Amino acid sequence: MLDRLHDEVGRRNFLRLVGAVSAAAAIAGTVSACGGPSSTSGADSSAGTSGAVNVNGTIEAGISYSLSSGFDPMTASGATPVAANLHVFESLVDLDPVTRAAYPALATELPKKIDDTTYRATLRQGATFHDGSPVTAEDVVFSFTRILDPANASLMVQFLPFLAGVTAVDASTVEFRLKYAFPLFPTRISVARIVPKKIVEADPKGFDAKPVGSGPYQLIEATRQDKIVFKRWDSYNGPRPAKAAAMNWRLTSDSTARVSALVSGRVAAIEDVPYVDVSGVKGKATVESVQSFGNLFLMFNCSAKPFDDKRVRQALHYALDMDKIIATAMFGNGTAASGYLQPTHPDYHKASTVYSHDPEKAKALLAAAGVSGLSLTLMTTNTGWVTDIAPIIKESWDAVGLRTTLDVGDSSGQYKKIDAGEFQVMAAPGDPSVFGNDVDLLMRWFYVGTWPTKRFRWAGSAQDTQLTGLLDQAAQSSDKDTQSKLWQQAMDLVADEVPLYPVLHRKLPTAWNPKGLAGFKPLPTTGLSFLDVSAT
Q1: Share in percent of the chain as helix, strand, coil (round to 5)
Q2: Is the alpha carbon torsion for 154, 158, 161, 163 positive or negative?
Q3: Which residues of the chain have pLDDT under 70?
Q4: Closest CA to 521 of 505, 502, 534
Q5: Looking at residue 70, what DSSP letter applies?
Q6: pLDDT, tens only, 426-481
Q7: What is the CA radius of gyration of the chain?
Q8: In terms of CB atoms within 10 Å, which end of the chain has fewer, N or C?
Q9: Crossing angle of helices 480-497/462-476, nearest 10°?
Q10: Dist CA 216 CA 242 (whole Å)
Q11: DSSP symbol at 54
Q12: Cα distance between residue 299 and residue 313, in whole Å
């Protein structure tokens, strides 16, 4: 049995598995002696086990990712600050973190359409920021204007190409002027979190470090590599009031420590359960793996030979043994990409080009491109599940005649090299669905702006121009069938060209103690949400 496990999992994962089993056994004894959470076999077995709601309780959570950036919602893209901002800020319209359905947040209702290029929104009466000041139309105008200002290099601006300007009609009403008709407008404005003009202008750096919003929770303290502390904002009068008095998010990037904290009862929920630990944790808590858009992608330096030839890019996709990657490195918690979107997405489309494992086709494509005995360096981030996959990618590529070297490093350092053009191929995680779930947004994140220009260096090509045109046509179409067909053409184009393209979509394992939390649900995106969740 041990020999079989060694063969299937590989030496590295085998040792991790043995260590995880040993740790789980030790923790189980400790928890049993301390009267910890009763055993459950999975999500279904936890029904009805939650205790009485404690509105004055504190939610303790284990967070996988450190603070890699500040909290200013105009520029924050790290998994942890983005998740924190869900609780601290509001947009006029927000997306439910679980269902991804739009609902009025700071606005009293979804924006009213005046004509094809004009919308109006009315603010919720009595809404206040965490310093006690009222949220005004002036703050809304400021929040959008700073995103649109090129000098601010906002990450959100790429999602608002249709917006010409925002003006205050009166103290509680704002009007949006669009450059062209954009039917997705009422939900897309969820990307713009509303911030207090007075505080941001007075101290932008201070605001980035300790943000002030109008959401149900106020951020009290944030310490890198340690914790984020929140407390309930008692003056909040919106649709998602805090159901706990406080939250402590423990920043625990070490997976063993994160699992131990959950099983021992120090935290009530953790994100990013290591795949090797899922079965063991199910004996001590509820674990659910939710299919997400979050993916592992391959990205090529399309300005460097031979990766400027799409046949080489395609060959490296065909060479991948996806069954082995998902079964061995991910313990089944992934879905091989059969399109740009995951199969559970409402606009899923099976691509015209699907990359099944076909080493012979990979060899033929390399030969047709005149490539033989290529030496290449695969750059990856040191994200745990990605480092487990990287050796299998190397093995797959070496099997078709390539000589592959791995370059594994911290995300920030790797992207500095990429932005300088110092790379050939990268395998890395990506999940823009934290910002929204429509096809236009999910494609613009990777294929318009920073990524094609500074990273995979595809901007300006005929295919890049074609793709942008398809996205622009779809964005302006009010006919859903026409829009869907244009999106499908766009997704087929990137599936064929693969300058950057998913190789798999992740299932995200989240674990929680149903006796410690009421109303908790795992997310189909990176992070945790405690909106409508209480301690027990």
Answers
A1: 40, 20, 40
A2: negative
A3: 1-51
A4: 534
A5: -
A6: 999 999 999 999 999 999 999 998 999 999 999 999 999 999 999 999 999 999 99
A7: 24
A8: N
A9: 160
A10: 5
A11: B
A12: 9
